[in-house]
Amino acid sequence: MYISHPLLRENAVEEREYQVSIAKSALRGNTLVVLPTGLGKTIIAILVLVEVLQKKGGKILFLAPTKPLVEQHARTIKKLTKIEDVIVLTGEVSRKKRKELYGSAKVVVATPQIIQNDIIAGELKIGDFSLVIFDEAHRAVGNYAYVYIAKKYRKSREDHLILGITASPGGDEEKIMEIIENLGIENVEIRTEEDKDVKKYVKGFKIKWIELPMPNEIRELYGKLKELYNSIITELRKFGLFSTLKKPTRRDVLRAQKIVQQEIKDGKSEFYQAAMLITMAIKIDYALEYLETQGFEAAYNYLLRIIEEGNSKGGSKAARTLVRDERFIEMMKIARKIEERKGDIENPKLNALRVIIRKELAENKDSRIIVFTHFRETAQLVANALNEVPGVRAARFVGQASKGEDKGLRQKEQVELVEKFKKGEYNVLVATSVAEEGLDIPATDMVIFYEPVPSEIRSIQRRGRTGRARIGKVVILTIKGTRDIAYLWSSRNKEKKMKNELLWLRMLLKDKLKNVEKREVMKEEKKKKGQLRLVDFEDSPKPIIYVDTREFRSNVVKYLSENYSIVAKQFEVGDYIISDRIAIERKKVDDFLDSLKDGRLFSQMVEMRRNYEVPILIIEGESLFIRGFHENSIYGALASIISDYKIPIIFTKDARETAKFIEALMRRELGERGEVSLRKEKRAMSTEERQRYIIESLPNVSAKLSQRLLEHFGSVKDVINAEVGELIQVKGIGRKTAEEIYDIVNKKYKKLNTKN
Fold first, then answer.
1. Record's PANTHER family (predicted)?
2. Which of 173, 312, 383, 421 has fewest C-beta within 10 Å?
3. Minimal CA–CA distance to 35: which of 474, 491, 464?
């Protein structure tokens, strides 16, 4: 039997009792739907969507966290409904084009960051939407864009309607309540596979845990890595860290890192050593994780990356110290011996994987299998190994981001790969976490975990890829005596806790929400021509802050938008323009250090000083002195910015503090001047400024050094033509700087290849 509705295509949506019941409930108020993967959360969203459009009118906003999910939801809506003007908005659609599409669309399917940015920039009125759907609603915590959008939407109209859908809100009571508060949830619909109205539609799955031995040849290397890690932890205990912990976990180490950063900030210089040791410990712990969960090849490649970093000019102090440590050198001798004879050493997980998949395909040649692995390089290794098995056609499925030479899959490539998997051109997908959430792969017969994951949400999502059309199979591979086993039990315990929490949540919210005042959310919108709704009126015009478009990725803009109108501009100079007098350059700690390293910092300061009467530099973050830079270099740069460029520096802890400072500055500027103007033209440089500007572009040359060089040599030409021996006669120019200046001036220019 199929559902009949004016906006649904005929025989498109099968009638399922629990889906219809949940959809009806969701039309009464803001609802969170918790439903196992594969039971049709998207169908419920579409049932609510078509009813809202039919009865209430207006527009619908459907949000999903990833581009593939956005594309998939849009295709499903178009396939199942008669709705025209369904548009997809991701970061690939320009701001100008988005503004046009908002006016014509009935249903907007988008990633949340785009919507948040357009609300902040005033390009989108969130109150125009009759319904907002939040897919993977468990993400509505912390600073994620869902939280901001929901807050703005709920304020924008009294009859707002929110639908949150998720397979797993997590097992933490506090987090679940945070999701409910952030989305303004008034009603919760929870179903499990055991519920009467769901049970008949669940095919289920069989889970098998396979425990494999670590090869004897690897044990010696594993032991040496553990010894090195434990010795670093012992050194850290001398700083008063881990005093009550026998075996500190990675979380404990990361917590200790924050403590150390605070001690350094408080002026305790002895903790620089602790900061370096913690970074060393983290690196060795990751090597151990690779060896325990992924195998020797992945661990060896990671160790080689540490060596490469330690031997590079810009490598961290931790990596440089590590690669010169006798214990690390001894351990690498063992690793290299294993590498030389790795063809003789079996990878237990790869071998088990080959056997399992060969057997599955022998029993059912049309089987579809997903292998989940945590790391990209393992996904490639596994795919290559499986393609050597007769009958296996494996493809690697990863996210869009590129990491070094490892290129990600573009959105179009991801969609095409999933289609080929459905059609059988590939019968095995080797996937990272990108395939855990929401992807429409309905006919998967087997899911294999290359390693357990400690997250109950990710475990549920991985398993949910199977057991839809028929009983599925789930296989989890582990190595005996490693963190694999800990992760497996952690996930199982958290999942058990989460199920108990859901039962508790059902009872709690039933009682808690019964007294929630009922709102009229399905009243038909009747807006006469020329008539404005209450939400169309602004209390009063907000003061304007001009913000560089690149800053929209930060939370600073989000916080400022609460009290100010944000106007997006693309600036050559500065990030926040307060007025024609005041400009702010905001740098997070990493960006500050990177720009100091590559020479951008001082040229940016020159432009700020030249164009604005009151330029300000904000450095945001708390770990300025723990990334391998000598503290004298950092203090020297800070001193130069203040004394040479006359630019004040403000330090803030986080985006919230940055926004508060900008607001305070804005209030003062508005109070004194009444209104803020934005100057468009740059002030012309004097001849002397141009000369200094040219010389400051040379390596490691500050404003003060450029002045000394010009005073010593008399002209730009003579500075450029100077030999190394002449340059080092100038105070502050060492041989290394002199050689770098000479090299950059005299090196032949290589024409860029622009054919690509």
1. FANCONI ANEMIA GROUP M FANCM FAMILY MEMBER, FANCONI ANEMIA GROUP M PROTEIN
2. 312
3. 464
